[in-house]
Amino acid sequence: MNKERLAAFTDAVLAIIMTILVLELEKPKEVNLAGLWALRANFFAYTLSFFWLGLMWTTHHNNWHAVKKVSNSTVSCSLVMLFLASFFPYTTSLVATNFNNVTAQALYGIIALTVSFSNMAISHSLKKINPQAHFGWLYSLPNESVILDVVIKLIGLIITLTIYAPAMIYAIFIDIFIVGYASRHQTGFLK
Fold this sequence. Notes:
This protein is mostly helical. The protein has helices at 3-23, 33-37, 40-63, 72-85, 88-97, 102-129, 144-162, 167-185. The chain is built from 8 helices and no strands.
């Protein structure tokens, strides 16, 4: 498969996933400010999931120019990533309607972590078949920013499971700013 077909497929599936996110938003019982305010957890979860997926897409898009070839491994890892990412509308809906529920928050965190790990696998497969390519920081493992990304999610998951259920979604909130900062500067957060 050539790189353009894989990129187009990934773009399409992520766009569909991001569209489904908004379709899952609960409607207010009364359409007024109080009714919308009552759904603030829904809007918060939707916003975080949308921008997390959007940041992931942007990072892939910004690094894809360095890709010359893709392997069967790259395609397989991409399919796994898209499969896992397709759970975001479901887990976002669970978190939105059960904000203080440990299971809902943990499942959301597990999906976020496994998507991150699958992106690392994509990165590894691309570097293996494109050894001379210069990728941005996200595709440069091990990198302090990538490690920090995973550590923030793991800490959020641990706190969710032991102390404070909504810690996972707040960890994603923090993670968006750190990963977003690093991707804009293409150097990694700690450099």
